[in-house]
Amino acid sequence: MRGARGEGRGAREVQGSKSKRGDRCSANVSAALVKALLLVVLLASPTFAYLKLGVHIGDQTIALRWQELPVRYFVSDQGVPGVTPTDLDGAVQRAARAWEDVPTASITFARAGFTASLPGEEDGMSTLGFEDRPELERVLGATSITVDTVTGEILEADIFFNAAFPWTTASGGEPGRFDLESIALHELGHLTGLSHSALGETELVHGGGRRVLGAGAVMFPIAFSPGNIDGRRPMADDIAGLSDLYPAGDFRRRTGSVSGRITKDGRGVFGAHVTAFNLRTRQLVGNFSLSDDGGFVIAGVDAGPCLLRVEPLDDGDLDSFFDETDRVDVDFLAAVHTKLANVQAGSDTGEIRISVRAR
To answer: I need a labelling partner for 184 at 20 to 30 A (CA). Which of 46, 88, 173, 357 fits?
Structure first.
């Protein structure tokens, strides 16, 4: 078994902080008995419809996913003030059930019980629990993943929730405390192989950092403020991403895709955020242009007329989405495509070209 351990993009950040988080670590390739620096990276190819976690192997990027379902996980038997181990267990079960309830995805989870082990230990057990990490003053939680570096199969995944923050599992939330269930839902999304969504709106706050005004996906990298419980259910963008990774039934036959290129002054734009709003279902999904020629694909789109919008990635830190941030172009004005995209079930729209203007 060839395993590599990595931690990257699998973090939920606190809003309104000036600090920067570290999100990379080295890993061992055990079968060959050699050490290699591997990054848990984002799949940057228009072949893939959503940002997913992956690993670079030679000149390829391999998608990370679980091959054996259900995903078996343990819950740490250590609580924190305001949250007992039983409370933690319940919040994780509710979050897992929310992902399982996506009818177009086949992901399933199996609770294996409590454990004295802590998340982060390479013990073959996927463990969720608290760790006191006060030095990570922007990170509410993070996911680390052990993968087979040949197949991309996820072998183990651990999630820690930062005990340095105040937590609650109250059904209606609690002022001054972060909602554990919504953060668990976000981190379990990473555990399945999903990366971050850019469907969210923020504003800069005095002294640095951002405040979340609204989010169109639970996989948006910045959390709502303490007391808020809005992030307890996957939204259209989350559902499309999970279903693209673990399709169930006739999902791909019942939905279509939008593809095309984003250009500026005749050249491709890398890292542009492209959204499709379905006028029939009122659902919003998005992706990025993920190649140097500006190519993008948004899959899992409901059939019907869609309004396409392109915008620079300016509502979150670039390295919450991409490793090579210097490639990302944010120097352009948002634009709406002049024609509606007619999405048909089981097919692609064909290449749609959208030109943006420099700021």
So the answer is: 46
Domain span holding position 27 = 3-241
**Domains held by the chain: number:** 2
* Cα 166 from chain centroid (whole Å): 23
Using the 8-state DSSP alphabet, how is residue 140 labeled? E
pTM recorded for the entire structure = 0.88
In three-state secondary structure terms, 337 is: coil
Supply the CATH number for residue 112's domain. Answer: 3.40.390.10
Helix extents (H) in the chain: 85-100, 180-192, 236-245, 251-254
Q: Let me know whether 141 and 274 are in one domain.
A: no
Alpha carbon distance 121, 179 (integer Å): 25
246 is a domain residue: no
Report how far residue 311's alpha carbon sits from residue 271's, in angstroms, rounded to the nearest whole number. 10
- Quick one: tokens of 95? 């979050």
Query: Consecutive 10-residue runs of the chain (359 residues): their mean pLDDT?
Result: 47 46 28 27 48 74 89 98 98 99 98 96 94 94 90 93 98 98 98 94 79 91 94 97 94 96 97 98 96 94 98 86 89 98 96 97
